[in-house]
Amino acid sequence: MSTKRSSLTAFAAIVSASLVLSACGGGSTDGGGSTGAQEPTGDIASMAIAKGESGDEYTSPEVPQSTDTFVVSTDNPYTAYNNSAADANNSYNTFALAQVISGAYKLDGNNKVLLNKDVMESVELTSKSPQVVTWKIKSGVTWSDGEAWDCDDFYLAWLSSTGKSKGADGKDIFTSANTTGYELIDKVECPTPTEVVTTFSTSYPDYKGLFGISLDIMPAHILEKETGVADVTKLTPTGGDQAALGKVAEFWKTKWNGFDAKLMPASGAYQITAFEQNNSVTLERNPKWIGKPGGPAKIVLRGISDQVAQAQALENGEVQVNSMAQPDANAAERLRGLSSQGVRFGASNGLSFEHMDLNFKNKWFADQAVRKAFMQCVNRDELAEKLIRPVLENAKPLGSLVFFQAEEGYTDNYAQYKGDAAAAKATLEGAGYTIGGDGYATKGGEKVSIKISHTDIPRRKQTVELIQSQCKPAGLEIIDDTDPNFLDTRVSQGDYDVALFAWSAAPFKSSQKAIYETGGGQNWSSYANSKVDAAYKDASSNLDEAASRKAFQEADRLMAEDNYSLPLYQLPNMWAFKGIDKVYFQSYNGALWNANEWVKTS
């Protein structure tokens, strides 16, 4: 799965976003764009633009309403309503919640940031020093239970993600997946229920990524009722009623998992009406939705981890849409062959990238020589050739943790890692490791053995098999640790040697700070470098775009020198559909980002 960099999510692919071909399943043409995407040919590319999009704004359009159920498959099932909690945060929740939880802004298929005019009147930078942003909510917006969607909900989003509410152990009691941006807000004021005034301690150019892009506006009224806290806006991150704050934090991070209708209302066009754990989630039109009603009467999102099985389900008419954050060559070939049956196939590079994080708590990876040797023996070009190019023919290894290949600022900081087992072996021997009779490195009489942990996605298993063969000549024993629940539980606990997954990112780079800074909410590998911390602090607060980019580049270079995380490649999203007019896989929000606009064609 992907994990999100909240705006990064971890993908079982993101993980951040959390995200190629012709309309009829033919070839593809090279495009460009800020993500380095290879854009689809024909009118598939036009589907990236929402019907309700106008300039920099979005308003739900009027579309014919179907009485049918639209069944959509994706790689992993929905697990949690509060996708901002660190142990719940992943792209597959985002894919399910994109039509359920409203925010101030939306993203279209080209990752363009659009003001959500269904629920917002305006968002204005009302002062630069100090930076003050005023968010004005449209009158009459409610949750599906009839309660107002208003300033209280925005306040809770800030309170839960400032990272400033510390327990006795000095850690954030909310354990939000990402505090970036929110930790820079000194105060949130509610002059009226529909007005939210945020005052920042320092400049924050990515403020449009707050309050909703990562689906983090939870129902404050539900939390208040369940905790007995009368008014969440009377609580502050520090000081004040600490007992009440503790109750709020405990509910926020533990009670919005799975689905409970009385605890989990909707603020978007659709509401969750059914949930089958490890399988599916069902959405139906929200009768209290203030905007134009959605086209599909019901949407069922099913998790099917095998992409070929997804393609078979589409071919058999069991589903109408495949949405695959995990590119799969066999599935792509099968779907291309279904064009005569009316199946349309598309693929494009999304805002997600596959990578391997090396855990600094691991006794072997505490030694930089082992980290370097591991990166030296991995042949990333072979991985791209065998696993990605059959889907996206010009895919190549990614050389950055911060930038995608076509973005301004991109520098390949990992070009030296080309799969050189001899160099890796020499690195180990130079650091005092001995290659034993079985061909594996030892030190102090103990064999160096490294587990690569990942979810049960076929491409990931193939990745580990290839790395096992690549690194064995270097003297490294690689063990496959496949765990279907790896991204749901273990990754956020730092329970791995190497974590193989993808980050999915919204187009706001400041959100990366939570992954790479010392003690960051998504820094699960215990990585620490004060110079990286300083670079991210500068980059995410500097209103000078060129200076900010330079600071991001510095952080990227330093992390490469530390051998912390090895980027593999940008992940193309794949999707296919039949009987619907326009479907496009939005790289952060998945296929349902504009499902309210879908019109049945057959």
SSE topology:
Layout: E1 2-4, E2 8-11, E3 53-54, E4 57-58, E5 69-74, H1 91-97, E6 105-107, E7 113-116, E8 120-128, E9 131-137, H2 151-161, E10 185-192, E11 195-200, H3 220-227, H4 242-254, E12 270-276, E13 280-285, E14 298-303, H5 307-315, E15 321-324, H6 329-336, E16 344-358, H7 368-377, H8 380-387, H9 421-430, E17 434-435, E18 441-443, E19 446-447, E20 449-454, H10 458-471, E21 477-482, H11 486-490, E22 498-505, H12 513-516, H13 530-539, H14 545-561, E23 565-577
Parallel strand pairs: 1-22, 4-7, 5-14, 5-15, 20-21, 20-22
Antiparallel strand pairs: 1-2, 2-22, 3-4, 6-7, 8-9, 9-11, 10-11, 12-13, 13-14, 15-23, 16-22, 16-23, 17-18, 18-19
Strand fraction:
15-25%
Alpha carbon gyration radius = 23 Å
The helical percent reads 10-25%
* Overall strand count: 23
Which parts are unreliable, with pLDDT below 50 for 5 consecutive residues or more?
5-42
Give the integer mean of the pLDDT values: 90
> Could you give the distance between the termini?
32 Å
By DSSP (H or I, 4+ residues per run), the number of helices equals 14
Short overview:
The protein has 602 residues and is an alpha+beta fold.
Structure report:
With 602 residues, the protein is α+β, with helices and mostly antiparallel strands. Helices cover 22% and strands 22% of the residues. The protein contains 14 helices and 23 strands. The chain has helices spanning 91-97, 151-161, 220-227, 242-254, 307-315, 329-336, 368-377, 380-387, 421-430, 458-471, 486-490, 513-516, 530-539, 545-561, and strands at residues 2-4, 8-11, 53-54, 57-58, 69-74, 105-107, 113-116, 120-128, 131-137, 185-192, 195-200, 270-276, 280-285, 298-303, 321-324, 344-358, 434-435, 441-443, 446-447, 449-454, 477-482, 498-505, 565-577. Strands 1, 2, 5, 12, 13, 14, 15, 16, 20, 21, 22 and 23 form a 12-stranded mixed beta sheet that branches. Helix 3 packs across helix 4 (242-254) and helix 7 (368-377) runs antiparallel to helix 9 (421-430). The longest helix has 17 residues, at 545-561.
